[in-house]
Amino acid sequence: MSDQGIAFNADFSLGHRHEELSARGWTVLTADEFADDVVGTLQEFGTIIPQFNGQTAFAITRKPGYEDLPYSQSMNRIGPHTEAPVYGPPPRYLALHCHHQATCGGGHTGLVDGYQFLALLERTEPQLHNWLAETPVEFVATAKPGEAAQRRVKEYILTPTEDGDIFRFSYNQFHYGDVNPSKEDLRQSLVANSSSPLARFAVLGEAYFIEHSTPVLIPDGSLLIWDNWRMIHARSRYTDPARNLTRYWLA
Ligand SMILES: O=C(O)CCC(=O)C(=O)O
Ligand SMILES: [Fe+2]
């Protein structure tokens, strides 16, 4: 290896990003920190795994057919959620590589700490917290809105594992009974006018997200990585059709 190669590796050490990810639950790598090697860089954080469609890289950009749906390939708002709660386990980390960020004032990826939300519930809503600890919740995911194939799982909102606690939350699931709801599912909310503990949990989670989340507008070329067992994320509505990101799931 040439001296230049050694200097290159030293300059591009990502130790501080690993630290930020574990301390805060999310980090942003600037383009110069990973020098175009997205896959090689992500492999420092985990193993890249297939998503709902079997692909390891998924385009988050506007596609026709989803105009009325809270779906990643629409320009609509997506409510607070953890990714792929129907997986056992869900992807440990999520990454979004931004090719072109929305320039319309929307399109923020919001993040908030789900463990902190649960800790607050334990203090302020002990009965609800107990209910969550004792009651598994069903999660359903249609791979793509309107398709027949579905995954389902019954899991606790917080599942302890040897590798860490897995937190699950899905606005779409709690309101519409599916992580990727269809237009029919959207006609009625299961949370509005419901007094069930799960509906209360959903409302409190949304309120916590609104009050405490950090909106991130990923700069062009940068890579946002977060801990999907810990953080709740969401997306604000946007109108710039050129917004274009690639999503990765890491085990
Ligand atoms: O578009 C975004 O910023 C994130 C969308 C989202 O939640 C996802 O793709 O999982
Ligand atoms: Fe998501």
Automatic annotation (TrEMBL):
Residues 50-249 form the TauD/TfdA-like domain. Gene3D superfamilies: Clavaminate synthase-like. The keyword Oxidoreductase applies. Its cofactor is Fe(2+). Keywords: Antibiotic biosynthesis, Dioxygenase, Oxidoreductase. InterPro entries: AlphaKG_dependent_hydroxylases, TauD-like_sf, TauD/TfdA-like. GO terms for molecular function: dioxygenase activity. PANTHER family: GAMMA-BUTYROBETAINE HYDROXYLASE-RELATED, TAUD_TFDA-LIKE DOMAIN-CONTAINING PROTEIN. This is TauD/TfdA family dioxygenase. The lineage of its organism: Bacteria, Pseudomonadati, Pseudomonadota, Gammaproteobacteria, Pseudomonadales.
